[in-house]
Amino acid sequence: MIFSLRKLALLGAIEQPIKLSAGYFAEAIKSSVQTAARRLQELEREGFVHRRIIVDGQWIMLTKKGVEQLKKECYEYQELFFSTPKIQLEIAGRVITGLGEGGYYTTLEGYKRQFEAKLGFIPFPGTLNLSLDLLCIVARKKLDGRNGIKIESFESENRTFGGGKCFPCKILDDQAEGIKSAVIIPDRTHYPEDILEIISPVYLRGELNLKNGDEIRTRVVI
Asked: Model confidence over 1-10: pLDDT tens digits?
């Protein structure tokens, strides 16, 4: 299915809708007309494309979800073929008040056990949330293409809790010397891409005397 999505993108369906027949698309992906039609239906059903049927074909354009899926594939190929030794990425942001969900999720046993085993610490309940400017958003996006430290999903009390990944980081503040911390990126999150969440075994706001609007610089190991 990703192959078909990539072909649509190469045909120009990222920038604007393209007019397409099942026969033409069958030639593009070297399949039967029936298979080509089925692939387009699957892409629409998964939310990767917008599709409008007309008398002599259909108009197709990739959705935001479809574009993000291709970007994810691109990042994975880069990681596979152009991987580099661990590097440190500097990301700065301003402290903001979060949604308050971190305090709940970081105390769940299914997460706590993994944090302790994989990061070497049990987080203080909650996350330190940083608002990023445009330049740092670009830097933050580089984390999407890295594997990080995998946090597995789990089930508890008839509910499934999603996974994510973590990246060890260092807060560049003399007072933070020696304090372990990590950027956490949940697979599912209510936060937009300009928010960075950090977990630590200590209450960072109190430890570093932080208030909303203070700038924090971090060095993330990726």
From this structure: 888 998 899 9
Residue 23 falls in which region: left (phi positive, over 0), alpha (psi -120 to 50) or beta: alpha
Claim to verify: residue 63 and residue 111 sit in the same structural domain: no
Q: What is the pLDDT of residues 34-92, one digit of tens each?
A: 999 999 999 999 999 999 998 888 999 999 889 888 887 876 776 666 655 567 899 99
Q: CB of 137 within 8 A of CB of 89?
A: no
Show which of 81, 98, 128 is a domain's final residue.
Answer: 81
Which residue, 155, 154, 172, is CA-closest to 163?
154
Pairing status of strand 164-171 against strand 149-151: antiparallel
**For the chain, how are helix, strand and coil distributed in percent, rounded to 5?**
40, 30, 35
Question: Which residues, at least 6 apart from 11, have a Cβ–Cβ distance to it below 8 Å?
Answer: 18, 20, 28
> Whole-model pTM?
0.61
User: Which of 81, 97, 127 represents a domain boundary (last residue)?
Assistant: 81
Which domain, by its residues, includes 181? 88-221
